[in-house]
Structure formats: structure tokens, C-alpha cells
Write a structure and sequence with these properties.
12 strands, about 10% strand
Length: about 475
């Protein structure tokens, strides 16, 4: 090498090391799966239980409650290098800081955020199960323990950078321990734990299981043609697993176990009944928020620009829901990245070309399995001229003159978003659903979609004046 050649080579090495360090510090599910793969590759032939125990050991998930169900975290196998061990501890150990930062969570490819600890604990419990479908401690490890200590649910939050997420900040200065990410991780842990308990033969590698669940791309028909076991279906899959009364009893059992393990007195019969009554009441909020309502991607996650001016608050409950199609973008979006880009594009058009304060719609349905927050539940939109103060405007991304949105996306709006609005006191129970064209001179929401919604419950014709 000539005298000056070492400098470019050194610069290249530094750049490569910097890129590697950035990838290792990125809190994205893809990067976490890569870290899991490194653990697997470092001990070829190790089964997923051994890998899960090493992850648990690196993250310090080894308290008495966890050991009661799973045994001690295993520190066997080749020693993890300091960088990998530090990354795993950062990625898996869950806590909410005083300044509303949530740690131990990762961004998944579908745009949702997941706490890794309950996910991994649920999977480990599933692999330990002796009988298919009967997983000891599954709900206590994934959700029940925190349901007891969290009278309030949520909130969701936002990442500092979608491409290389590092810091997740919650959308409330007074968050509960049972955040949206904690619930997502708990649901996924329960679903995957139950799934692996039922599998015969050689167990799948943990990295492969996570890849199949979180990283499977959607085809042109969206979730209509997707397999059952994908992260986008977590709410419907969890609903099929755990009835609210069962989950409530698991919360009480978790509290009883915690008392026994910490040497506290047993619950008296009266105390137990009171706790169960409180849990059942809190379970109503849990079911409403995470089972009955559809998953909503918040504004900060799709990169919304701030509202311009002063928003007008709605007077709730409203009486109408108006259905739109975007027309442009004309194609359904099948990924978080594309749906988020479409949302930003529509907001730019509404703000820059039309001079509106914000994106006009209240909510927008993608074909990726999610609803995207526009102006939301509380602020008046700019979607249906002359009717913005009395109804929500909900649009489907795509042009639906001749074709329809996916059945799944229509179900999210027709069955989930509408019932969520009624249950949350945002729409009256006998609200009227109408197409944009019924009250404004437009072809929206397209001939095919308009013909479809005419058969939906709550559809109503425009009442003629006397």
C-alpha cells in the first residue's frame, strides 16, 4: 500500500464500524431479529428455548414471578460479546421513565411498536407447554400482571426516527405501565405462545418465527389473502384466545401469586371479590380500546405536519359518518411506508394546494390492516362541505369507481371504527352513514364503493325537506 493509501482504507473501516454500530443500536424489529440470529449462529444447533433463556438472561428478566413459570434464565452457551449483550438488554428490558420515554420497545415493519419482554416471555411459556393449547402462566406473564397495576391504559407514542428508531416518547406526560406497546407485546406473546404450544416436530428457530410473524409482505389483496398468523391480525387473534372473564381471573391469580412470592398476606375473600369487581370494570376499558376498536396509526408516526391555525373542537356525540375515497392516491397502500407516504402527500395537497389547515379527513383506511389518524375524534375536519361539524369523514386510500377496497379494510371501518365511536361516546348509537356524493356534488366515494356502502348497517338516504 502506498503512503497515502492507508487513510482511505481507515476511513472505510471507520464508516463500516459506524454503520454496524448504528444498526446494532437501532430499535427496529428487523435489527432485533438480526441480533437474535447472531445468538443462534453463535451456538449452532441450540433450540429456541435455549435462545430465549439467553435473551432473558441478557435482559435481566429473572425475577421470582418469571422464575415461578419459566425457571431461571440460562447463562449457558458461548458468552455473548459486550456489544450484543448491551443491545439485547436495551431492547428487551421494559420501563417507562419519568420523562415519558418508553424503553424495551421496538418499531415493527407494520408501523406499530411492541414491548419485547412480554412477547418473549409468552413464546418461552408456549415452548415449555406439555399439552397443546394449555400454556402455564401464559396470560399472567404477558398481560395479567400489569393489568392489575394499571388502572389507566395507554398511551401510544412516537419514534424520533422511523428509519433508525432510537427513542420512543409517549403521547402523555402521565402514562401508565400498560402502554399501547406493552399491550401489543402482550397480545403477540399470548398469540405466538399458544401457537408454538400446538406445533409438533422440530420447533422453529426464534428468528424465523419472528420474521414470519412481523415481516411477511402483503400481496395485492392485502389482508384478505394474508395468513392468519401475522402481526397485523393481533387484535382479532387475541380476541379468539382470551375471553374477558378469563383474563380478569388471571389478573386476580397474578396478584395472589405476587403476594405469595413477596411474603405478603393472602387476599381475604372479601378483598378478592372487591379486586375481581374492579378488574372486571377495568376490563371493559381494555376490551373497548384494544379489542373492539381498530388499531390506529397516530399522526406523528406517519409524519404529519402541524395543524395550521387554531382547530375547531367538535361537539360530541356526532350524528353522521361520511364515506370517501381518496381518488388520488389511486392505488391501495399495502405497507406502512406507502400508507404513511400517501398520508403525507394528501396533507401537502390539502394544506398547500387547497389552503386548508390540515389533512381534511378525520380518519383514513389503508389496505395494510390499519386506520390512520387524520384530524381524529375531537377536531372538526374539512371533508364534507357544509357537514363537517356534524359528522366524521372517513376515507379509503384508492380509487373505487370500478373496484372495492379489501374486505378487511372495509370491515375495519364498517364494524370496528363505527362501533368504537359509538362505544366511546363519539357517535350516537343511531348514527347515519352516508356517501360523500349524497350531500355534496361529487362522484366520491366512487360508484363501486358507494354501491357497497348502501348495504351497510346505518346507511341512510338524505332526508328531503318538506
Amino acid at each position: 500500500m502506498d503512503k497515502g493509501g492507508w487513510k482511505p482504507a481507515l476511513a472505510l473501516v471507520v464508516a463500516l464500524l459506524s454503520t454496524y454500530a448504528e444498526a446494532m443500536s437501532s430499535l427496529h424489529m428487523d435489527d432485533f431479529i438480526d441480533a437474535v440470529r447472531q445468538v443462534e449462529d453463535g451456538d449452532p444447533g441450540s433450540d429456541p428455548l435455549a435462545v430465549l433463556r439467553r435473551l432473558r438472561g441478557a435482559a435481566g428478566l429473572n425475577d421470582a414471578f418469571i422464575r415461578h413459570f419459566l425457571g431461571s434464565a440460562d447463562s449457558g452457551g458461548p458468552e455473548l460479546n459486550a456489544g450484543l449483550s448491551g443491545y439485547l438488554s436495551k431492547a428487551v428490558h421494559h420501563r417507562v421513565t419519568e420523562d415519558a420515554k418508553e424503553e424495551g420497545v421496538v418499531l415493527t415493519p407494520d408501523g406499530t411498536t411492541v414491548a419485547l419482554a412480554p412477547l418473549l416471555l409468552g413464546i418461552e411459556a408456549g415452548f415449555l407447554a406439555k399439552t397443546a393449547g394449555r400454556v402455564r402462566g401464559l396470560y399472567q406473564l404477558t398481560l395479567a400482571k400489569d393489568l392489575d397495576s394499571s388502572p389507566l391504559l395507554g398511551p401510544d407514542g412516537c419514534w424520533d426516527n422511523i428509519a433508525s428508531p432510537q427513542v420512543f416518547t409517549l403521547l402523555s406526560s402521565r402514562p401508565s405501565a400498560l402502554t399501547a406497546a406493552r399491550v401489543n407485546g402482550g397480545m403477540d406473546g399470548a398469540v405466538l405462545g399458544m401457537e408454538v404450544s400446538a406445533k409438533d416436530g422440530r420447533p422453529p428457530m426464534l428468528s424465523g418465527l419472528l420474521t414470519e410473524y412481523y415481516c411477511r409482505p402483503l400481496e395485492s389483496k392485502g389482508l384478505d389473502a394474508a395468513p392468519r398468523l401475522v402481526s397485523r391480525r393481533r387484535r382479532e387473534n387475541f380476541r379468539g384466545l382470551a375471553a374477558p372473564p378469563v383474563l380478569a381471573r388471571q389478573v386476580v391469580k397474578a396478584e395472589e401469586l405476587q403476594r405469595r412470592l413477596t411474603g405478603r398476606s393472602k387476599l381475604e375473600v372479601k378483598e378478592k371479590k372487591q379486586l375481581l369487581a374492579l378488574v372486571k370494570e377495568g376490563m371493559k376499558e381494555f376490551v373497548q380500546k384494544y379489542i373492539d376498536c381498530p388499531p390506529v396509526i397516530p399522526r406523528c408516526m406517519w409524519g404529519a405536519e402541524p395543524y395550521r391555525g387554531t382547530p375547531t373542537n367538535l361537539s360530541l356525540p356526532l350524528s353522521f359518518m361520511y364515506i370517501h375515497h381518496t381518488h388520488t392516491p389511486s392505488q391501495p397502500c399495502l405497507t406502512f411506508q406507502q400508507c404513511a407516504a400517501d398520508m403525507r402527500s394528501m396533507q401537502r395537497f390539502h394544506q398547500e394546494d387547497r389552503g386548508w389547515d390540515d389533512i381534511g379527513y378525520s380518519f383514513v383506511a389503508g389496505s395494510d390492516g390499519y386506520i390512520y389518524e387524520g384530524r381524529g375524534w375531537l377536531q372538526q375536519g374539512a371533508h364534507t362541505l357544509g357537514h363537517n361539524s356534524v359528522g366524521y369523514g372517513v376515507s379509503f386510500i384508492g380509487d373505487y369507481v370500478t373496484g372495492l377496497p379489501s374486505q378487511h379494510s372495509m370491515g375495519l371501518v364498517r364494524d370496528k371504527l363505527a362501533s368504537c365511536a359509538v362505544g366511546g361516546g363519539r357517535l350516537v348509537a343511531d348514527f347515519v352513514l352516508q356517501g360523500h356524493r349524497q350531500v355534496v356534488n361529487t362522484s366520491c366515494p366512487g360508484d363501486a364503493l358507494y354501491a357497497e356502502i348502501r348495504g351497510w348497517e346505518h346507511f341512510g338516504e338524505v332526508k328531503k325537506g318538506k
